[in-house]
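Last lecture ended with a question: if I hand you only a sequence, what can you say about the shape of the protein? Today we answer it with a concrete record. The protein is Lipoprotein. Below, first the input exactly as provided, then the predicted structure, then a couple of comments.
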Amino acid sequence: MTMKKRGVQMKRWKPLFLAMALMTLSGCAALRQPPASRTIPPVRILNSGPVTIHKITLIEEDGGLVVVGKLRKLQDFRLPGHVDIQVCSPDGASELVRGKVRMQASKRRGVRESSFRGRLMVPPSSDALLQVRYHAAGDETGHAIRCP
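The predicted structure:
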């Protein structure tokens, strides 16, 4: 058998091997169980000063809930503060968590972004309310956020 004939034969079998590989992969993907769906509590963003919170993502991780978000500021970007995350349950119980802001410094003008992350040890119920607010360093207004 010459090399030319072998190449022609391989070209004939190539689509068959490709189709079998795709069917095998799709079968494995169908066997996985979908993750247990959980209702996510509503989030209320309380803006303060020149810093605005414009994006929040809730991630379930190790039995807890991680709140990740983005901050925007128009001036030189140095944020020595933190983010307060308040969980308000309908029964009156509340939990306050301090989220860490990833520090960035820039002399560029225009809108700048930074991110924050806070971890809730106990996932809130679906009827709880999450309130998020940036708290600047040196701000004397306090950390407590009133639950509605």
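Comments.
1. The first strand starts at residue 43 and ends at 46.
2. The chain has a mean pLDDT of 74.
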